[in-house]
Amino acid sequence: MKKDSARRKIWNFIWHDDSLLSWIVNLILAFFIIKYLIFPAMGFALGSQFPMVAVVSSSMEHDGNFDSWWSSQAYCGNRICTQEKFYAQYNISKEDFQEFIFRNGFNKGDVMVLSSPSKLKAGDVVVFFARDGRPIIHRVISLDPLQTKGDHNQDQIENNLLNEKNISRENLIGKVSIKIPWIGYVKIIFAWVMSLFGIAVA
Fold it and tell me: Do residues 176 and 113 make contact, with C-beta atoms less than 8 angstroms apart?
């Protein structure tokens, strides 16, 4: 009877108590359930070690409608061109791009659901590790070698931390299959608050 009574008290404290302490315990429980049960189960089912990621940059956003973005400025080598001319270098036409997943890009704060990156094609959106361990989410524009570009970016990134012109498949985390708008701001704001206290959130 004592065990049943204790269980009932714990159950009521977690699910029915309106106190600040109960709210904090609920947050901690939600974190552990998501991180150690839901995420691993999703990762196993989807074939990706990171089944969900929050978008934390604007590198895949489109300004205005598709046509205005398609004619916006880009760089073709050392000369200024348009996004249209940039993609033409990779044999990607306007019609091709309009058939791509997320043809209008996506926004900072969106959450992306990932699946296995084993089968890729031009136009897929992938998440991969840069050399400093940061996850990058960009669009595949070439397969051999594997190359990507952020839709919003005017050119590919090529520096000591990231070379989008030659990405190792070993650094691939997953291929984006589903977008959930805006809820990633929960993580972004949480990480920002933690950073005020000198705590890094991965």
Answer: yes
